[in-house]
Amino acid sequence: MKNITTIFGMAIFVILIASCQSKEDQSEDNQSEMEVDSIQIQTGGMILGGKYGGKEFAIARGNEIDIMMDIIKSYNEMDAEKIWKYSADSVAVLSFDGTKTKLTKEDMTGYFSSLDSVTWVVDAMVPVEIVNEDVVKIIVLTREKAYMKNGDVMKIRLVEEFTFIDEVMAEVRQWTADLNEEIESTPSYGDPGGAMIFTGEYEGKEMVISSGNEMDQMMKIIDDFNDMDASSLWENSEDTVIMYAENGKVIKLTEDYMQGFFDSADSIDWAVSKIIPLEIKGTNVKKVIVDSHETMNLKEGDQSKIRLFEVFTFKDGKLVAVSQWTGEFEKDM
Asked: What digits encode the pLDDT tens for the residues 108-121?
């Protein structure tokens, strides 16, 4: 969904979500099941372009969750040697500021040497595998505080996507949002034995791949947004949709508000690269992860371009909330 903060200077509070687990439900038209070792695994979502275009997602069933938790523990211990037990010699990192680098063990050791201490707190984890590929993507929602030896303190809230190929960490992508006082003071919920939410209203709840019609709803939202049609967009939305934007504030979106937003633009191109539909077990709440980038041309002549990571929350089939993290486009180096 359009990065509304670019025009209106409004912003986002976090809806913390988490990951997927197997589900043996009857699949819908946009869902399927695959059989692995005589166990039916619910699959869904879609990669919409690139090398794995057309592939679906399933819950990760390998060792990557344990590996990820060991990496987090080793990071907090500032132990680059342990992190690189699970990493390629150089890890491709696309930072939230658009910088793309090849991170090595020596780079990480140098960074740790500049710190007195670091705290990397996990709020949610979404481990998914690309169906019929040896590729696992673990999406981690975190808060980080680094205490530098020069006295500076760095505080940041991140979404990071860690890509493992054959159980080796090969790539990391980042998005960021504001770490305000309320979020900073929220305690994290325990250590995951699988995929779950660690904070907030649904603390301790696990998530599964959704078997509902959220993919169809999400594709319609994308089309309506690109058509700048607020009336059609609101057909499956609550009267007021709460948007938690990346600088920590809350926007109440209505059809009229959105139409005014569209009226400020000549054109919008919201290009989605992947969608992961999830549901919180034991509730009527669905959360759809959308990885995208967006270009907006304003009538006043300006252009905005941004990478987006967003979580769309549906209750009883209606869109009720959107959470947003952002990153800059990859910079030419």
From this structure: 999 999 999 999 88
pLDDT tens, residue by residue, 243-274: 988 887 789 999 999 999 999 999 999 999 99
CA distances to 83, 188, 215 from 275, rounded to whole Å, are 29, 26, 8
- Report the alpha-carbon distance of residue 127 to residue 105 in Å, rounded: 24
Neighbours of 36 (CB within 10 A): 13
CATH of 59-207 among 3.30.70.270, 3.10.450.50, 3.40.50.20, 2.30.30.240: 3.10.450.50
Radius of gyration of the chain measured on its C-alpha atoms = 20
Q: Report the C-alpha gap between 107 and 99 in whole angstroms.
A: 15
What are the Cα distances from residue 83, in Å, to 92, 103, 233? 15, 12, 44
